Amino acid sequence: MVFGSIFGAGSRAYSYEIYVQVDGRWRLDKRLEGQSSNTQHANEQLEKNAIAQANALLNMGDFQAVKVLRSRERSDGFGTQSEIFNKVATARPKTMTTRPYKGVFPVCETIYDLAKRPSAKGLGTVFREFLDKQNTTAIELLHSPQHQRKLNDMSSFMRAGIYAIAGAQTQPGLPGQAERSKKLEALFDKLMSHTRNALAEKNLPAFENNDFARLYERLSQRMKDDELRFMFFFQATKVTQSLSSTAARLDIALNDMIERPMHGTAVLLDEIAASCIDSATLIQDLLGPRAGLSEALIALADLSAGKLEMPAKPDPLLEKVNRLLGENRLPLCADTLWERILSNLSSKALLSKNDPRKEWQMSRNLSHKLSSLAPESYKEAIDHAGRMRLERARNMES
């Protein structure tokens, strides 16, 4: 596609509507808005993003076709609309599956409980395949009517995930798993209703120029506590969900922490960053290629303390993550990294793919290194996982 002959610099405002076909009928899924002040490059990126999101929807396997309509409006109000993309599903992809959650999922009494980090972390794990295909985060899922509707459309998949989450509620005195699952489904329905109502609310402060601090300041003049927190994420999600990558979401959150430090937004931006770092793909992109699992886990441990050695030409995003972790300004992110380290250390993945006879020594070295780096709250779990790995390696040798 030749964009140069289509886009004028600052002369028109472009917008894109993404439609999905369900049972032969077209339904509007999302609208991406541009600004008349956008550069030609910004307009090109917006169009590429719209087409990429349409392809991602088709790849989910739940729609018969997708299409993208482009609208152009001049400053005098004259507008045109044209279809720029239309694709029919040729074969149904592999059905998405939920993933198990090994932690303890919190008992949620309100929609605000469901939308907080402990719950978002569990939802992010169980619905990871859905989130990755949607190019979204758990926070965006919990605050976006569009993503909630898509998940709700996949009713069997959603119910399986919620049932798995209910199974991770192991606190004493709770009813059976089926009853817990019904309660969580009802709570998710209430959450969907709340986000739809919020979408209809007028005169809410907008999230502009990636300025989280300004959004928080304006919202805090009208609300507080749980509702303030929820609306902060709700308004921010309108923008962040349209970004092209998880790295881009992480970058704007970290930029705000660095450029506009504010007590009220500190924990909220840490939540956004942790929700991004939940993505294994982002972690792999940040760390770059490593010789093996052992080196990767040690690198994660160093990063969690802000002590990761930077390459000659460091990735600016990695530098920001390393810096803020070193300043103890991303405690949720540090916790997320150690959970990933613990999960991988506990796994059956070999450290020595080429020579299993080296497995015991490599496991011993890794266990000792991680034990020396682990924060106090993780030392016992890391030591236990290390001993179990050593036992498996010893059994391999015998």
Write a structural description.
With 398 residues, the chain is of the alpha+beta class. It is 58% helix and 10% strand. It contains 18 helices and four strands. The chain has a four-stranded antiparallel beta sheet with strand order 2-1-3-4, with helices on one face. A hairpin with a 4-residue loop joins strand 3 and strand 4. Helix 11 packs across helix 15. It is globular and about 75 Å long. Mean pLDDT is 91; it is low at 1-5.
Key attributes of the depicted protein:
18 helices; four-stranded antiparallel beta sheet; 4 strands; alpha+beta; 398 residues; disordered N terminus
Total helical segments: 18
pLDDT average, as an integer? 91
Instruction: Using the CA coordinates, give the radius of gyration.
Output: 23 Å
* Shape estimate: globular
Main-sheet strand order equals: 2-1-3-4
The total strand number stands at 4
The low-confidence runs, each spanning 5 or more residues with pLDDT under 50, are: 1-5
Binned strand content:
5-15%
Elements, N to C (H/E): EEHEEHHHHHHHHHHHHHHHHH
Q: Separation of termini?
A: 61 Å
Helicity level:
55-70%
**Structure class:** alpha+beta
Please give the largest β-sheet.
Answer: 4 strands, antiparallel
